[in-house]
Design goal:
- This protein has a two-stranded antiparallel sheet with strand order 1-2.
- It starts with a helix and ends with a helix.
- It has 107 residues and is of the alpha+beta class.
């Protein structure tokens, strides 16, 4: 996406600013405000607890999907799935799967 000219053009229209009210709420809340100005007017959305915050956690499936997206280009599909399975074994207190994964070279 970074090399996509449409994405780059859109990114130049984005401005980031620190909101003093959001900053004051941290760390009790991880407040975020998005303010979009269009030809049709201004649209504002405030989120007190964004997805992934301890007060609004992702479920396992969402975390796995996020990992798969972020690991593209770092791990191939097979190794992404192997690591997901190995980490799932940790819930059963089975460190052997993770240690085996860590000892084997990435394909």
């Amino acid at each position: 996406l970074i090399g996509n000219p449409d994405v780059s053009a859109f990114a130049r229209l984005v401005h980031l600013a620190v909101d003093s009210q959001c900053e004051a709420a941290f760390p009790a809340r991880t407040v975020a405000v998005v303010d979009i100005q269009t030809e049709l007017g201004r649209h504002t959305r405030r989120v007190e607890y964004p997805l992934g915050d301890p007060a609004n956690p992702m479920d396992r499936s969402m975390l796995q999907d996020k990992f798969r997206r972020l690991a593209v280009g770092v791990l191939d599909a097979e190794n992404r799935e192997r690591l997901i399975e190995a980490v799932a074994e940790l819930r059963r207190a089975d460190l052997a799967s993770v240690l085996t994964w860590l000892r084997n070279p990435i394909k």
